[in-house]
């Protein structure tokens, strides 16, 4: 995965929400574009809830579902 960058070398943002920002990225081999949501983990209680949601969503097998990755830097 490679983040798309603007002329100032900042990651290209699609938008932001309550929990984080969404950026444009692409697969470095197929060049297929997709969105990446980055959510900062500030609260360990919320981290556990989010980790559980990601585990559940990652079991989906549908053409519109996404790949979910979770990296917990608090633990």
Descriptive overview:
The chain folds into two domains: 39 residues, 2-Layer Sandwich (Phosphorylase Kinase, domain 1), CATH 3.30.200.20; 34 residues, no CATH class. Helix content is 19%, strand content 24%. It contains one helix and four strands, in the order E-E-E-E-H. Strands 1, 2, 3 and 4 form a four-stranded antiparallel sheet that branches.
Number of domains: 2
What separation lies between the terminal Cα atoms?
24 Å
Instruction: Return the CATH class of the largest domain.
Output: Alpha Beta
What summary fits the major beta sheet? 4 strands, antiparallel
- Taken in chain order, the helices and strands follow as EEEEH
What attributes characterize this protein structure?
Phosphorylase Kinase, domain 1, alpha+beta, flat, 75 residues, four-stranded antiparallel beta sheet, 2 domains
Topology:
Layout: E1 2-3, E2 13-16, E3 21-26, E4 33-38, H1 44-57
Antiparallel strand pairs: 1-3, 2-3, 3-4
What would a concise description of this structure say?
The protein has 75 residues and is an alpha+beta fold.
């Amino acid at each position: 995965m490679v983040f798309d960058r603007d002329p100032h070398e900042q990651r290209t943002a699609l938008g932001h929400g309550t929990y984080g920002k969404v950026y444009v990225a692409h697969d470095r081999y197929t060049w297929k574009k997709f969105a990446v949501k980055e959510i900062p983990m500030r609260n360990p209680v919320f981290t556990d809830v989010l980790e559980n949601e990601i585990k559940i969503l990652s079991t989906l097998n549908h053409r519109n579902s996404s790949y979910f990755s979770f990296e917990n830097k608090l633990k």
